[in-house]
From TrEMBL, chain A:
PROSITE patterns: ABC_TM1. It comes from Nocardioides ginsengisoli. Signal peptide: none annotated. This is ABC transporter permease. Belongs to the binding-protein-dependent transport system permease family. It is a multi-pass membrane protein.
Automatic annotation (TrEMBL), chain B:
Gene3D superfamilies: MetI-like (1.10.3720.10). Keywords: Cell membrane, Membrane, Transmembrane, Transmembrane helix, Transport. The chain crosses the membrane at residues 28-57, 98-123, 135-155, 161-178, 216-240, 268-286. InterPro entries: BP-dependent_transpt_permease, MetI-like, MetI-like_sf. It is a multi-pass membrane protein. This is ABC transporter permease. It is found in: Cell membrane. Belongs to the binding-protein-dependent transport system permease family. Residues 96-286 form the ABC transmembrane type-1 domain. Pfam families: BPD_transp_1. The keyword Transmembrane helix applies. Its main location: membrane.
Automatic annotation (TrEMBL), chain C:
It comes from Nocardioides ginsengisoli. Belongs to the ABC transporter superfamily. This is ABC transporter ATP-binding protein. SUPFAM superfamilies: P-loop containing nucleoside triphosphate hydrolases (SSF52540). GO terms for molecular function: ATP binding. PROSITE patterns: ABC_TRANSPORTER_2. It is found in: Cell membrane.
Amino acid sequence: MTLLLFLLRRAATLVVVTLVSSFLVFSLMELAPGSPLSFLLGNRSATPEQVALVTEQYHLDDPFLVRYGAWLGDVLHGDLGRSIAYKQSVTDLLSTRVTTTLLLVGYAGIIITIVGVGLGVLAGSRPGRLDAALTALTTGFLAVPAFVSGVVLIWVFAVQLGWFPAFGGGHGLLDRLRHLTLPAVALSLASSAYLARITRAAVQTQQQAEHVETARSRGLQGGYVMRHHVVRNSLIPITTVLGLTIATLIAGAVVVESVFALDGIGSLLVQAILRSDFVVVQAVILVLVVAFVLVNTLVDIVYTMVDPRISLTAGTGR
Amino acid sequence: MSALTTNPATAATAATGRLRPRTRLRSAAGLLGVPGLLAVGFLVLVAVVAVAAPLLAPADPNFPAPLEAYASPSGAHLMGTDALGRDLLSRLMYGARVAILASVAIIALSTVVGTAVALVSAWVGGVVDAFVSRVLDILFAVPGIIFALAAVSVMGPGPTGVVLGLTLGYTPYVARVVRGATLREVRMDYVDAAWLQGRSGVAICLRHLLPNLRPLIIAQAVSSLGFALIDLSALSFLGLGVQPPAADWGLTMRAGLDSALRGHVGEAVSAGLCLGLLVASVIVLGDRLSKQAEERA
Amino acid sequence: MSMLTIEDLRVRVRSRDGMRTIVDGVTLDIGRGEALGLVGESGSGKSITARTVLGLFPRGADVTGRIEVDGEPVLGASRRSLTALRSRKVAMIFQDPRAHINPVHRVGDFLTEALRKHLGMDRAAAARKAVGLLADVGIADGERRLRQYPHELSGGLLQRVMIAAAIAIEPDLILADEPTTALDVTTQSEVMAILGDLRRERGMAMLFITHDLELAAATCDRTAVMYAGQIVECQSSRTLPDRPLHPYTSGLLGSRPSIEAAVRRLPVIPGRPVAAFETGAGCSFAGRCPMVEDRCRIEAPATVRRTEGAVACHRNEELVGALPSEPTVRSADV
């Protein structure tokens, strides 16, 4: 019952946030210099038919709010407009590319969770040289942007060693994963380092915690105490950070997809901006914002499972 | 009750103010530690190079010499040349200017705006604060680079849109952190005492709260500087920020990608190292400052 | 044969200013089924002493002396025998159950953890035993409590859970580190009563750490008083409240509020308590002692075994029966 209520509340928030952000994204067009028509056309010379099409589709003759309402109605029906540069429906453009981005972010997310939490626990539980070395290593990786590590990875593993392809998405699941390995590694390096630092700090704090002293005083073995008390309780800060990290990954995909010439929605966004294809820009940004809010909601739900002290009814309390 | 009369921050500054400059320098060095000192050293080096690039650069960063493309490091070109035969070292030196100027502008702007929003929100409280904190929570979930992409899509590719967008994107980070700290600070006795002495809200915010929050705000700003540097050069890398033929690390990296595929890794490695070392220095310094701000609180 | 023997225990811990002595030559002995109260102010080293019995001390601590539980040495013991000690022989009850019980696991997990790990019980059997244990500490609806999380229970209930967890492994010795300090007054007496009854029923020995001299004397067979890392006095709880042997004990007794004698202002022991590393050459209490003599400042007193009890004071002979045990009313205060 409380779970249902909680989910309803979160869903309501989700709807409100999405509405507000859709309004902001739509208003972007108004902020641009020049008339919405020329902006939408990207300052291209257009045939009268194109002008009529865009005018009709965006209800450019109507007042702003009416235009927004009409656009929102279309979006809710799955119609995100028609790309002027690609001469294709935006929904179709997106649907083929979303999978690539999801695979990339998912792949990187798995790497980050394993490497980040693993290294963090290792560093946090073994003070001394290993900890110092790992801390230096994570500071280093934290400072390397994804596009730098991407280029280095291409040079080493694609150009020099030839183990992985430098570009493209591949076909079939296995081939796709092979193509996505270097991009996923590039995307996950900095975030893994960040998560490792957070995990290390949490593990160190938990090892000093009183309840861990209780567990030791009861003769429970080191490995068991580590898993069931130290790492288990460290999951609380880790979850908080993981949510932000996944949002960062989605944004990072924009860059990484461009480095590795992957057909994802990130590289589509960059192309659309460069080609002044505003209809596509609007759609992709909307999709990204909804993704961020969804991830946040998911993290909030996971959070209540990780920390029983946070009640479902009292909101997140983070 | 000593909190009524002494403001910890002013007491601390008064204490350090009495120290002789040399002692003060030494105590600062002690607080930073070896990694912190190395970081500060590298930051100073980059800043000097950026300011004095026209004096220090061995060649014109934009002078092309197609016949000398991809020259190896030599007396004439200490770090070799790029695909167009331009002197790589000179381009990196001029690139430091863009990186530092733009990232500092982003952080300065977002810190001022974010701090103002946070102070007003936390001080006024009630509905205003509830609303502001909700909005911040939502904006916080959206990475800064998305704001920059939106800004660039409206204003067109170029540094102006990028700086404005990233400023907008970084403001919620600042505001959230400062708001949290302000709420803790407002509960302190000295604020009540100042209030009872008849000080105005603005005066308390500026004369008492702000000085106490300063270490935290500075630490936060330094830490964010690293992320701003990364986002900034990423946008140039994507072709949405600084435009060619200007010298910029992100652009050098983009050219480095094409060169790497042709077997020349010099540009990518050198620009990547410049960026990585600068960001690492900023992160190390930010960590140190955060630790000190925490210990103080 | 005694249950717990501690001989000349010294503990030094690492700090910013080098190694600091926290426990400075503690010697004590607890018989089977006997309860010993160890009384001292915060920083006197009493909690560290209790933890050392389980081989729990901070990283880099320097521990010397001899500790034996049931004849088995603790210091320098192998990991295996330490585990055996902690899992079967000795159980500890901590001061703050809110902090000392993992907040993310259910009460049932906490109670059955040791049963499953050490006694090899399956989940169902351990749960049945846990319900029984909860009944023993006066919690009737055990089934429901097992499914609850620690934050859903009051402090008093939670401390009973901690006691139930301690007796679960049927230990021979219980170390209770201020088990009632974090609780409110009415709950304190309930928890103490439960602890006392269970201990007597099952014949468990107890080292009871507290800062409350009266509580120790009321609950334990013997009471030891600790000051600056040393035990200054130890005698039967029956005689201690009326016939303190050490001026510090006398001061503690004198500074408690009393119902019978209405005193305007309670006398206090002048000065502040010191830790072991702050003491000089002489008696550690010399700086605050009303009975101080010249030699107290120069030479540390040895512990003397008298018929009345053990005491570490140069003037013990002349002070027996002469030290006040009630608040002394000074004319200036009236």
